[in-house]
Design goal:
This is Tektin. The chain is an all-alpha fold and 139 residues long. It has helices spanning 2-12, 17-88, 93-102, 118-129.
């Protein structure tokens, strides 16, 4: 029983200096490990939040670009309607053709291939050069 009494006594007594230093080092390691886990969780949260912010920014940029494109298309459509109305309100075909050449309805790509044959081209040039409208106006 002597050993049992000694163990009971030592259970309530102060540990030795060496044991206290080991216990303090162990406590420091446990706290450091817990802090590392917390900082990893915070880093994961901030990384996820950063990804979310980046995706949100990309989405907003795409939406803004889409709005700008839609406004440009709307403006172009209104411009086309106005030009078509002006062309249709001309007093004769010669003025309508001239106005259509001056105010293209759509911005056309330059087409280097000639879509008219020689006879059609002569007829168009004849109409455009006719100042008095003799080839267009029939009486």
């Amino acid at each position: 029983t002597c050993l049992q009494q000694k163990a009971r006594y030592e259970a309530y007594s102060e540990p030795s200096k060496e044991a206290q230093s080991w216990m303090a080092a162990a406590r420091l390691r446990v706290h450091a490990h817990q802090n590392d886990q917390k900082s990893r969780q915070v880093c994961k949260r901030t990384a996820a939040a950063e990804r979310q912010n980046q995706l949100t920014a990309q989405l907003k940029a795409a939406e803004a670009g889409n709005r700008a494109r839609q406004l440009k298309q709307h403006y172009q459509h209104l411009k086309e309607q106005e030009i078509n109305l002006m062309i249709s309100c001309q007093s004769n075909a010669q003025r309508a053709v001239r106005l259509e050449q001056l105010l293209p309805v759509r911005e056309r790509k330059i087409n280097h291939t000639d879509c008219m044959d020689q006879l059609q081209r002569q007829r168009v040039e004849e109409i455009l050069e006719d100042e008095k409208g003799l080839t267009i106006n029939r009486r």
